[in-house]
Amino acid sequence: AQSVTQLDSHVSVSEGTPVLLRCNYSSSYSPSLFWYVQHPNKGLQLLLKYTSAATLVKGINGFEAEFKKSETSFHLTKPSAHMSDAAEYFCVVSEDTGGFKTIFGAGTRLFVKA
Amino acid sequence: GAGVSQSPRYKVAKRGQDVALRCDPISGHVSLFWYQQALGQGPEFLTYFQNEAQLDKSGLPSDRFFAERPEGSVSTLKIQRTQQEDSAVYLCASSLTGGLGNTIYFGEGSWLTVV
């Protein structure tokens, strides 16, 4: 069975400092992993995805994530936070078990201070 | 269309009323998903279609929830005899194929409030 744990419900950083949003997953199969961002009253937007190619994945807006199978982690990072990064971030695992279930983490709210 | 379109965007229903939520996926997308997002929580999977076939409905919370996609394009999520705990944002999403790792594109959601 698949599951996703986002280790922090809230993260607060100052503008210009690094961002780290942590995600651990469990999956019985070789999963695909995604990070989505949700701005208030907006739809979910894909930041990046891992699909068994390179373990370091680069996404939009300067975000990247590293798939570490030994640690079952897929943490999201950005070298320098911008005010516009303030939003809710979701780590997502998807596996094909004959069906096609996609499981979201509970989300991490990122606050960016000026 | 350019993106996934959902209607209505906002719906207030009286307890016991039936509601229908519509989803127009991106043209040509084979896979369609419905999710329920309660306030302050992550989206929870409800059901999945590949073309007109409903391949997974394990996330539907009760038999009051029903989804269909009769022609493999537009989908409708129906909730019968709504209850207050049904209040949530209902998200529709689509992807080009059913292949693992395909990007899933989300609509902006239908906000349902049951009073």
Q: How would you characterize this protein structure?
A:
The complex is a heterodimer of chains A (114) and B (115). Chain A is built from no helices and twelve strands. In chain A, a hairpin with a 5-residue loop joins strand 5 and strand 6. Chain A has 114 residues and is mostly beta strands. Chain B has 115 residues and is an all-beta fold. Chain B has a single domain, classed as Immunoglobulin-like (Sandwich). Chains A and B meet through strand 5, strand 6, strand 10 and strand 11 of A and strand 4, strand 5 and strand 10 of B.
Write the SSE topology.
The complex is a heterodimer of chains A (114) and B (115).
Chain A: E1 3-6, E2 10-14, E3 19-21, E4 23-26, E5 32-38, E6 44-50, E7 56-58, E8 64-68, E9 73-78, E10 87-96, E11 100-104, E12 108-113
Parallel strand pairs in A: 2-12
Antiparallel strand pairs in A: 1-4, 3-9, 5-6, 5-10, 7-8, 8-9, 10-11, 10-12
Chain B: E1 5-7, E2 10-13, E3 19-24, E4 31-37, E5 44-50, E6 53-56, E7 65-68, E8 75-79, E9 88-95, E10 105-106, E11 110-114
